[in-house]
Design goal:
Blueprint lengths: L9 H18 L15 H25 L3 H13 L10 H17 L7
Length: about 120
């Protein structure tokens, strides 16, 4: 078969089309085995899931450390939470306000595990 410049032979076109169809068929719109991320899931989603796991681990680590902290150290944490709370006359930033609340919550949650004499 004679091929013109820029033209593709029919068998090559058929093979490429078949490969594209099989790729879509295997993917099934992102379906994958149960418990696995969907085929084609973005790397950002995987990174976000890993970040969430690390934050959960860090929160629990902080709670464990605060459970053995001295009263002075706990007061320092609460003072820092108060320090990042917006001052009168300043615009409150919702993330900073939430961070302050989270710090106070971590101190309170650590109280369940404190070993006070």
């Amino acid at each position: 078969m004679k091929i013109r410049d820029g033209a593709e032979a029919q068998p090559a076109r058929d093979a490429r089309q078949r490969l594209m169809s099989l790729t879509r068929w295997d993917n099934e719109g992102g379906a994958g085995p149960a418990g696995s991320p969907p085929v084609g899931a973005s790397r950002d989603e995987d990174d976000l899931a890993q970040l969430r796991i690390r934050i959960i681990a860090l929160e629990n680590l902080v709670i464990a450390l605060l459970a053995d902290a001295s009263n002075r150290q706990l007061e320092s944490v609460l003072a820092m939470a108060d320090y990042i709370t917006p001052r009168p006359g300043h615009t409150p930033h919702r993330l900073t306000v939430r961070a302050s609340r989270q710090m106070i919550d971590l101190v309170n949650r650590s109280g369940r595990f404190r070993h006070e004499p």
